[in-house]
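Lab meeting notes turned into a lecture example. A postdoc, R.K., suggested we walk through two folding results consecutively so the class can see how the record format repeats. The first protein's sequence and structure tokens come next.
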Amino acid sequence: MNKGTKWLQFRIISILIFFLLSFIIIVARDFQLQIIYKNKLEARARSQYLKKINLLPERGGIYDRNLNELAISIEVDSVYAHPAKVAKPKTLARTIAPVLLTGKMRIEDKLLSNSPFVWLKRQIDLAKGERERISGIKGVGLMKESKRFYPPPNLASNVIGFVGHDSTGLEGIELEYNRHLIGGDVKVYGERDALGREMLFGDLEKSHPIKGNDLILTIDKTIQYIAEKELRKVVRTTEAKAGMVIVMDPNTGEVLAMANLPTFDPNNFWDYRPQDWRNRSITDSYEPGSIFKVFLLAAALEEGIVGPNDIFYCENGKYKVADRVFHDVKKHGWLSVTNIIKYSSNIGAIKIGEKLGGEQYVRYIDSFGFGKSTGIDIIGEASGVVKRFERSKVSLATASFGHGVSTTAIQLVTAISAIANGGFLYKPYIAKSIISPDGMVVKEFNPTVVRRVVSEETAFMVKNILRGVTEEGGTGAKASLADIKIAGKTGTAQKPDLIYGGYAPGKYISSFLGFAPADSPRLAVLVLIDEPAGDFYGSTIAAPVFREIMKKSMAYLGLFPGRKLNVAKKMIPVYKEIKHTEIKKGRIPDFRDKSMRMVMRIANEIPVKLKIMGSGRTVSQRPLPGSEIGSDSVVEVRFQ
């Protein structure tokens, strides 16, 4: 083989090796792109030609116990644009800005952006003419979105809370039950070319997010309104810093009203200070003062340490414990246990506390639920603070009349409810049931007994003593009602000075804690007024507010003597008895002029699937009553 032939073979082999290596590299790269990096590259490609828009979910409604609307979602307009399709951005911005209630420059910046899709304004309520005008502009479109709306704008707002622009709960019940209320969003995709000039969202205006569940609260809208009205009146007239009222059904732990001042409008929550959003009935703790004597009394009676008629010498208004001297507002000599509570003698309470002992007293304070959260289903609950004062005579003395311990409003009304109902501590709650969009009960909340704290006999004795507080001569006389016996206790507590220590001069909390009717309690109420100007005694500030709230709530519930209305049916709505004649086997019943809860109960009895629209009472149904029920029958029921 000559030299030229060898060189030719070398060249051929080299070329073959080169092509072989190239082929191996190409195959390896192809394997890498199509197998190893497949998902990553597909996602990158989609991001280049697809645009995703999340349509806000439609939140479920929030209703009071009688199905009155407290928070609903309404359909509003959202305006979007494809900048590449807009012919004269500056002219359009000048024209459309006043309609969208926003700045011209802001609209112009969006229309001149390189983005293929922009929101010009979300969740705006447009008039029919404005809507038609906008929809006729090339490159601009309209779609329906859900917006949260609170029909009574200030009613129970600190309890209900509010949502952000993304329809997510941020405060109160809206936050606590967000996962049930929020529903499901919808993702809509559109295509664009390499320059981003085309953007086609074919289903944008047809897409509807999944509706969330409805939430029924234990709150009674009428009682809530009464509580807020009376609280607002006293805070205004006394120029107080803040105020709270809680109304509870003592036999179940259901919160019927929870009023707070300051308050806010959740439709425009951004216009208020964050401290105005706070539900002080849950988040704030304070020294309760003389209303705490109720629980000292219950402990001493339960242990058999004292009886209602046992007498103590109250030292004519001045009593020394260790290095501290305690005083009464009025000088008293010998007082029975009943009169110690009736006249609210601090020295008498100290002597009962000394006889009971710190260890026993702490045990009962714990049992009544102080020093730990109640577990109520509202976000942000504080636990309060109970110091261990078994070895401190001074701490035991101050705790005997409600100082040196801190409690929350919800703890106090829950604890007094245990006295009212015969000795059982209930877990307070504010959500009654969760209802799915098709009207089915997803979850129902029921009363929960935490424990028995005192015997029925002890609770009965405490009730009788607290009745004396509201009778003539008692500190709570201004809380009394002519037709109904009231049991309760006044409180006037100095506020601690958190900066310099001790107590702040001239700063007090006035309160009244009680229940009615005393013999068969249906409502337990706490009234608390923070830093009233001028007169600051609970007997003159809080007791009259308690009386007005109780009087008007009792009238609403029909509890005055001689009235025929059954309170249980008003306070704890139950489904009316369903007569067997109303439900014919295999036939759709007549749902017309019935409440939503009644309709759902009947539907569960049959059973039949429901599609519910609106709220209130039934105005129409399809199929009509008497129609045959098929295996997949769905009854469309409209409420108004």
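The second example is placed directly after the first for contrast:
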Amino acid sequence: MNYILKGNLRGFYCGECFDFLYKANVKIYAVEKTAEITTVAVAREKETFHQRTDEELKSLSNRLLAETETDEMGNFTVELPDKKYNGSAIEIDFSCSSVPVQVVLKNPTKEKGPLQFHVTTLQPLWREMPNSDNRQTLIAYWEYGITYKFWCMILKLFGLYVICGRVVDCSKKIPIQGLRVKAYDVDIIQDDYLGMGITGVDGKFKIYYTQADFSKTLISWLNIEWPAGPDLYFSIESGAGTVILKEPRSRGHQKDRENAPNCFCIELCVKTEGEQGTYAPVLFQKVGQYWITTDFDANGFTNDAERNAFTETIPLIGAVPAPFSSTALEYRFLVKNLDLGTSVIADANYMDPFEIGTLNRISFSPFKWESYSYWVNNPAAPYNVTIDPQGWIRVPRENDLFGTAGQFSPGTLLGELMTTKLVKEYFDLISPTVYIAGNAFPVASKASIHHYEITCEVREVGSTSVAYSNVLAKIAVCNTDYLYRRHPAWAGGDLHCYSVVMLELKETTLSGGGCNKVTNKVTAIYSVVHPAIDNMRVYFEGSGALPAPFVINPVVADEAIGSVVFDVTALPSCAYIVWVEATFRLTRGWGRDITPLYPVIWDHIAFCKA
């Protein structure tokens, strides 16, 4: 039994301000045999999260099951070896020798440790991976947000300080994009410049700095501020460099700014009339994690090393205004097929239900905080926005936090576009004739990459003219469904799958009905077909000195069809399995992970060595 755990780690500063853990070493341990598993698995974070002591680390070494590293989005994938693990509860730790945040610092922090932290004890909810009947692979998903108390403590150990802020218009409370926020520390002789952040479409910014940026003075032996924090004040400039806010130095000595902790959150406001600054109350920014302005290549693939095409339902990410905005707005998406020149409006038929934000309400006697999901295109939900026949989605306007109506708090999701409604190609490889691995693939059954332009239009409610729009110039989309029969002469079966991955053995399944014994060679005949193949390999499973895998990486065409001969003369007489496995350049917006389809597809055949 194979076990695969997919996870995500992030650390929160305050509210929705967080960073993904970057290049953190995730360690998975077996639970200590004497532990009361049920108790530790349901324990609260404050009872479990802690830095490991030297004594604990010594006792952990013989319980380590596997380890891996988080990527820039905090994601990790780890396979737990079935020889050591049986699906029971596990302990999850992570370690780091430097700040686990992807950031460039003018005074980098020093490496330490490595320092190791215990996160939790988890009983994964294992479920069988689709298309893995033969390999008996189970998969589980887990994500974790480290609360500000522990996250900021970890960063303090490395001397990292973070300011999470937001800039809004003082009167309209609309977030302002494109402003340069500079932070300073009041010092005895010369104020310290700590750093700068640029506001996004939601008005938010981050400034990273280190203890070294504010703890030094012009007199090298005098360091009065240690161990106190900085005394903060700010200035704000427009995109053109005009200063539109300049706080006095004395502001840094007021109670809410003096001795600031290493995680500091703030909202600043400016008057923007007559000044530079771009209001973007509704703005389409990303598809999942991919920015529409920078993360797509000329062919509509992601422009990172993965070069993914998009499939299934994809999240359209951006910003909508808070309810106290002076203008009621609505938006919609237009989708143009660049291959055919046709266009559709992404109305309710093209959008999956999605959460546009939350509705919050506070009541007293007794005090109670209530929060509800605010949906779009979900008629059964208590709070729902209906997409009108022309695709317009009206931004909620509730703004009564202490009343019965509640207050709308916007999220970042603008839509869940079902690309399967744009294109879904189906190919029958069974009728009228059964396709056999290794044969020339029928041209009429070749799928394609399709290209679309996605435009977000915004207008004031009641207006018939579009106020502004922004465009994703090209996105590559692929949705396929193949029906085929694997090695029909032996232990085959019909399969619906988004790709073709098939295997035959010349010496067995193509002769002798799969029952012939093999003596000195095995000829693996394979077919891998899909418009976005990444790589494929043919390899052995069994005992002895197995033949080296045959690998094509990358596959530069839409098919890999051929054969490879393996010399098995030296293998002992036993049963073996030959596998063909392929990965594909597909995403639903969050890297190469298209659960529930899963990006790795395989086929396998067993044989006996005489």
